[in-house]
């Protein structure tokens, strides 16, 4: 599935034209949770997928994990298209591990730390020394000495320690990729930094890639290489963290950054809730809430009609620089003579 | 177990005070104690003066009158604080009716006005909590807290479970309502940046005690106590090269209130602890005018504070 645009290193994980649609309840129109996403993750890369709740970021993550089958489009891992037969999926889930938000919910309260970490090994039939593997995973996750934690139960641990146990459980199978859904949202402020530092350390030591799903832009700034901003089932802006977070092009990204407590300038508080994925607006999907359109700046740039009527193409999965799906941002960019600017 | 150990705070009328700290530091216990909402097994000592009246020694009837009308609380999880089987309009009207402030018809009218005040259409009064989004539910909680025109609103993590955009909406709403009606605000959160943005003064709690207290901006950007410094570094400022690919946290975990460390309770996690910190607990010292911190490194002689390197 390589195209002419593919980067030098082949991606570890890639999605192509991914769509996930859930049937509507009681005659409601179907919800297009993921509505055309091309995304790539290079080996050893940390990508943050950010957006409000309901934007489809969790569904996208679950689809990439093979937990949800896409309605159309495909997921590929290590260059091979994901196979949804049971045996192939089981093998896939050894290579890709999920870490969830609330460690208290992901750990069985009646299993000891040892059992929680060893469970994956037992499911996948670990040939070697189980005890040594568990000990190594625990110490990699920062629980040292590991033997001291073997027989503890989740309720005896602090929130940060529990999240480390969850991460150890993910590490024990030697995955190539971790998908973490809000990994620090339920942790205390002082512990948060330690867990994020752990993810960075694992990348440096093991070359572990990570896709971090979050609504926390500070987290992306802290650990990610690239960031993808999702709105209503589509990635609307993506690129290196420095570019996207310090020079956001899309009005939605600009608004998200402007409401952070320490942001400079006047906050742009978008009114209302994110719109309904079963009724995606025509034209640019953000136009109904767009502050640039509402303030008339899009009109000045001569793109207001386009914003309301002309849908935007899906952003390509990988490019060197930042990319944005916005008529206004495209119009503001001075076209290079001789061709459209990347 | 001592959840809150000797906290002195004052909040002037119309002022906004933020209390920051991690889970288990006693900040929610403090909020509940303010209105005597703790279980009967809790032992309270000291004084809680609300408009000069001690809440702790109040008679039951007076206490009931003060709750909602003197001070009201906005709790964290709006889904758990609202009754799932009652319409939200009835829940907002409930304190009005109980306090005998309105007839049922007047209460309905007031409910509609309150809903509009918090940015919800009055027709939503007929909705059940599950029909609302998280942000809308939090708006209902705020409408409820305003129902009896309190002088003080205690907001316990009012935006914690919400998205950034909804959080911004709710914070603006709280700020605007508090400013318009000259209500005092005591806001509790773990996010120092949010508090610094909303409040006039900030108090940072650790293990049941205030370890730093001062003007909001100063506590946030130029903290003296190493714990307060760590807390403000925990949420990075985007664009700050120092925090890029460098998440900062504190080793260790918040202490168990049942087994507090000796001396300064922060010493096991403190990067600048001295040998004496294991023995001597530090009182709040003046670090700058109107700014206090409980750390051995804070010396009153040097106004700009030296503290941690």
UniProtKB/TrEMBL annotation, chain A:
Domain (ABC transporter) ranges: 15-257
Keywords of the record: ATP-binding, Nucleotide-binding, Transport
SMART domains: AAA
Pfam family, one: oligo_HPY
Keyword Transmembrane helix: no
Matches recorded under InterPro entries: AAA+_ATPase, ABC_transp_ATP-bind, ABC_transporter-like_ATP-bd, ABC_transporter-like_CS, Oligopep_ABC_C, P-loop_NTPase
UniProt name for this protein: Peptide ABC transporter ATP-binding protein
Annotated PANTHER family: D,D-DIPEPTIDE TRANSPORT ATP-BINDING PROTEIN DDPF-RELATED, TRANSPORT ATP-BINDING PROTEIN
Organism: Streptomyces finlayi
Family designation: Belongs to the ABC transporter superfamily.
UniProtKB/TrEMBL annotation, chain B:
Parts of the chain that traverse the membrane: none
InterPro entries membership: AAA+_ATPase, ABC_Ni/Peptide_Import, ABC_transporter-like_ATP-bd, ABC_transporter-like_CS, Oligopep_ABC_C, P-loop_NTPase
GO BP: any one term: peptide transport
Record flagged with keyword Chaperone: no
Membrane-protein topology: Peripheral membrane protein
Region (Disordered): 241-260
GO cellular component: plasma membrane
Keywords recorded for this protein, A-Z: ATP-binding, Cell membrane, Membrane, Nucleotide-binding, Transport
Domain of life: Bacteria
Subcellular location field: Cell membrane
Main location class: membrane
GO MF term set: ATP binding; ATP hydrolysis activity
Sequence ranges assigned to domain ABC transporter in this UniProt record: 1-232
Family: Belongs to the ABC transporter superfamily.
Stated name of the protein: ABC transporter domain-containing protein
Classification of source organism: Bacteria, Bacillati, Actinomycetota, Actinomycetes, Kitasatosporales
């Amino acid at each position: 599935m390589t195209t002419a645009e593919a980067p030098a290193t082949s991606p570890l994980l890639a999605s192509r034209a991914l769509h996930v649609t859930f049937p509507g309840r009681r005659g409601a129109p179907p919800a297009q949770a993921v509505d055309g996403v091309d995304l790539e993750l290079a080996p050893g890369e940390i990508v943050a997928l950010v957006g409000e709740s309901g934007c489809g970021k969790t569904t996208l993550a679950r689809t990439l994990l093979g937990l949800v089958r896409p309605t159309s489009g495909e997921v590929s891992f290590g260059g091979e298209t994901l196979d949804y037969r049971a045996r192939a999926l089981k093998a896939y889930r050894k290579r890709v591990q999920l870490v969830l938000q609330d460690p208290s919910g992901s750990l069985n309260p009646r299993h000891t730390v040892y059992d929680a970490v060893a469970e994956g090994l037992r499911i996948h039939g670990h040939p070697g020394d189980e005890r040594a593997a568990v000990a190594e995973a625990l110490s990699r996750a920062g629980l040292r000495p590991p033997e001291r934690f073997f027989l503890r139960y989740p309720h005896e641990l602090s929130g940060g320690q529990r999240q480390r146990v969850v991460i150890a459980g993910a590490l024990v199978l030697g995955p190539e990729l971790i998908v973490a859904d809000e990994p620090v949202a339920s942790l205390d402020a002082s512990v948060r930094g330690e867990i994020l530092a752990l993810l960075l350390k694992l990348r440096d030591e093991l070359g572990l890639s990570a896709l971090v799903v979050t609504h926390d832009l500070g987290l992306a700034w802290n650990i990610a290489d690239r960031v993808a901003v999702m709105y209503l089932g589509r990635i609307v802006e993506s690129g290196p963290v420095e570019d996207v977070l310090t020079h956001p092009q899309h009005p939605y990204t600009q608004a998200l950054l402007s409401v952070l407590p320490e942001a400079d300038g006047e906050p742009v508080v978008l009114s209302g809730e994110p719109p309904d994925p079963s009724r995606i607006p025509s034209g640019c999907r953000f136009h109904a809430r767009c502050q640039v359109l509402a303030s008339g700046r899009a009109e000045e740039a001569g793109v207001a009609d386009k914003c309301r009527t002309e849908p935007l193409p899906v952003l390509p999965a990988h490019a060197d620089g930042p990319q944005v799906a916005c008529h206004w941002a495209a119009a503001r960019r001075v076209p290079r003579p001789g061709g459209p600017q990347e | 177990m001592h959840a809150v150990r000797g906290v002195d705070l004052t909040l002037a009328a119309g002022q906004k005070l933020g209390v920051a700290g991690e889970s288990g530091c006693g900040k929610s216990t403090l909020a509940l104690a303010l209105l005597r909402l703790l279980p009967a097994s809790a032992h309270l000592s000291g004084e809680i003066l609300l408009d000069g009246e001690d809440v702790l020694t109040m008679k039951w009837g007076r206490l009931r009158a003060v709750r909602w009308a003197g001070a009201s609380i906005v709790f964290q999880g709006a889904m758990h604080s609202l009754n799932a089987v009652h319409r939200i309009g009835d829940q907002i009207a409930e304190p009005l009716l109980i306090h005998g402030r309105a007839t049922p018809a007047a209460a309905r009218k007031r409910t509609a006005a309150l809903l509009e005040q918090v940015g919800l259409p009055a027709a939503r009064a007929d909705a059940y909590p599950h029909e609302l989004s998280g942000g809308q539910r939090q708006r209902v909680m705020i409408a409820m807290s305003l129902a009896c025109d309190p002088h003080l609103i205690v907001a316990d993590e009012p935006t914690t479970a919400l998205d950034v955009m909804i959080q911004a909406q709710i914070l603006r709403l709280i700020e605007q309502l508090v400013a318009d009606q000259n209500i005092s605000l005591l806001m509790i959160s773990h996010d120092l940046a949010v508090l610094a943005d909303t409040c006039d003064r900030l108090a940072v709690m650790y293990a049941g005690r205030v370890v730093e207290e001062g003007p909001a901006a100063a506590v946030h950007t130029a903290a003296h106590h190493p714990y307060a410094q760590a807390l403000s570094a925990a949420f990075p400022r985007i664009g700050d090269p120092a925090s890029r690919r460098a998440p900062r946290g504190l080793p260790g975990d918040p202490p168990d209130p049942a087994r507090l460390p000796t001396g300064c309770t922060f010493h096991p996690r403190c990067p600048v602890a001295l040998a004496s910190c294991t023995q001597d607990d530090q009182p709040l010292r003046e670090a700058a005018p109107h700014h206090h911190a409980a750390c051995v490194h804070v010396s009153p002689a040097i106004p700009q504070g030296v503290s941690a390197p």
